[in-house]
């Protein structure tokens, strides 16, 4: 659990851990994604275009997280969430049914580390306090 100071702020080392995570996500995924965006030879099908655009936006927002690590924390929460959904909806059923194809198996190898790393990087006490327990924004 992360120690939060008296003002409710994260310690400086946690901000740098978050910044490193955003940088790795933004550059690591960004190199592959933006190369694909700028150098595609033929039109994409709809879902491929959606996926590449999604990753492009994710990498840009991750790089913004280097500057604003606390404000952009929902990006890391989203990163964990979509990958967890993918594991439970796209990988686990064929695994249990013994019908896992090589592409899905290879994708799991790329996706699974985030399911371990993101919860270690996120200050879960802060997330719980500010995103779960905090009062909701007003409706009117």
Describe this structure in words.
The chain is built from five helices and no strands. Helix 3 (73-96) packs antiparallel against helix 4. The chain has helices spanning 12-38, 46-67, 73-96, 102-121, 124-133. It has one domain (12-133). The protein has 140 residues and is mainly α. The mean pLDDT is 93.
Short synopsis of the structure:
This protein has 140 residues and is mostly helical.
Number of helices: 5
Number of strand elements: 0
Structural class: mainly alpha
Rg value: 17 Å
Run of helices and strands: HHHHH
Query: How many strands, what sense, and barrel or not for the largest sheet?
Result: none
Task: Tell me the helix content.
Answer: over 70%
Primary descriptors:
mainly alpha; 5 helices; 140 residues; 74% helix
Present the secondary structure layout:
Blueprint: H1 12-38, H2 46-67, H3 73-96, H4 102-121, H5 124-133
Helix pairs in contact: 1-2, 2-3, 3-4
